[in-house]
Design goal:
By secondary structure, the chain is mostly helical. A two-stranded antiparallel sheet has the order 1-2. Strand 1 and strand 2 form a beta hairpin. The radius of gyration is 23 Å and the shape is globular.
């Protein structure tokens, strides 16, 4: 019995408790500091729009969606799923990544390869400039990687997994965690490949490992972008950076456009922090300070199908199997002119 409780504590209780106290950590976007900054920006917007007569909301609570958004059935599901995801990570994501990991190249492998190819490089040593440059590169590689992984999950065969995220008919900051574990596995493996390659090349050129410059233990650019009202991306608060700045930086309004169920908004704004990738590859949709009418989700039918934690996990596999079976079914014979 003691062993059973210890295993239950390791797999369920401890991860959930850590997840809860994670709101006081600065390593994730959904932290208390970044939530406070985002809602402070939202309050400033509310006061400005109220003064200009640009909002009908009578209170700040109504401005951020009120009970109809924050206590919507979909939002309550997102709150539960936020804690369930850490159990899925322990039980499914990490074991799969661990199985694949031995077959993937790491930074050390690339350093050894380039050393054998071109010889050793003189060691430059640690300094602020290199640390900031290395951190900038890691940030850009991660953001670029996420753009293409995100775009890939909008394709035919991967969409059913990503639809879990888009199925939310209302958005609250924690909706950012409504991600299927298959997508998280792909993201984790893609990060290992991309960051390993970048770090290997950078460290070889520097003649040794370089640490990333951090702020409060967090990579400085991640800290900065999380502080730019990042939690408003998954909200009903319209915050546009304007068409010029949005060619480089991804605004909350741009990500809300990405979640729109209107055909004119489909397959736009795949970027996370930077929208420069969308600009470069033809998927950019810029916004203005005037809010666009948006309805979130993937249709009324899906809104009724993604209402439980079980459905978020299992439905993509069911739908993918159905899609696969439809492609294998022989087409009925076409009638001939004589028939």
């Amino acid at each position: 019995m003691t062993d059973l409780f210890a295993e239950l504590n390791r797999l369920v209780l401890a991860p959930v408790i850590d997840r809860f106290f994670g709101i006081f950590d600065l390593n994730g976007r959904f932290g208390l500091l970044f939530l406070c900054i985002s809602y402070a920006v939202a309050y400033g917007l509310f006061r400005y729009r109220k003064h200009q007569g640009l909002t009908e909301a009578r209170s700040f609570w109504q401005f951020i969606g009120g009970s109809r958004v924050n206590f919507h059935r979909s939002a309550l599901l997102d709150y539960r799923y936020y804690f369930v995801r850490v159990i899925l990570k322990i039980a499914l994501v990490l074991p799969v990544v661990a199985l694949v990991d031995p077959f993937m190249l790491r930074s050390g492998d690339y350093i050894q390869f380039f050393t054998n190819l071109w010889g050793a490089r003189p060691e430059l040593g640690q300094n602020m400039g290199l640390a900031m440059l290395y951190g900038l590169g890691v940030f850009l590689v991660r953001d670029f990687k996420h753009y293409w992984v995100h775009r890939a999950f909008h394709s035919r065969w991967l969409w059913e997994f990503h639809k879990v995220h888009h199925s939310a008919p209302v958005m609250v900051p924690v909706t950012a965690s409504r991600i299927h574990f298959v997508e998280k596995i792909v993201e984790r493996l893609a990060s290992v490949v991309c960051i390993g390659l970048y770090a290997g090349i950078f460290w070889y050129l520097c003649g040794g490992e370089i640490s990333r410059y951090t702020l409060f233990g967090v990579t400085y650019l991640v800290f900065i972008f999380n502080a730019l009202a990042a939690n408003l991306r998954h909200s009903h608060v319209w915050l546009s950076f304007g068409p010029v700045l949005e060619r480089v930086l991804n605004s909350p309004a741009q990500h809300q456009i990405h979640h729109s169920d209107a055909p004119r908004h489909f397959n736009n704004n795949f970027g996370t922090n930077l929208s420069i990738w969308d600009w470069m590859f033809g998927t950019l949709y810029t916004t203005t300070s005037t809010p666009e009418p948006i309805r979130f989700g993937t249709g009324a039918r899906d809104a009724e199908r993604y209402l439980t934690v079980y459905s978020l996990i299992v439905t993509p596999f069911v739908e993918l199997a159905r899609k696969f079976n439809r492609t294998r079914m022989p087409k009925p014979p076409q009638p001939t002119a004589e028939g």
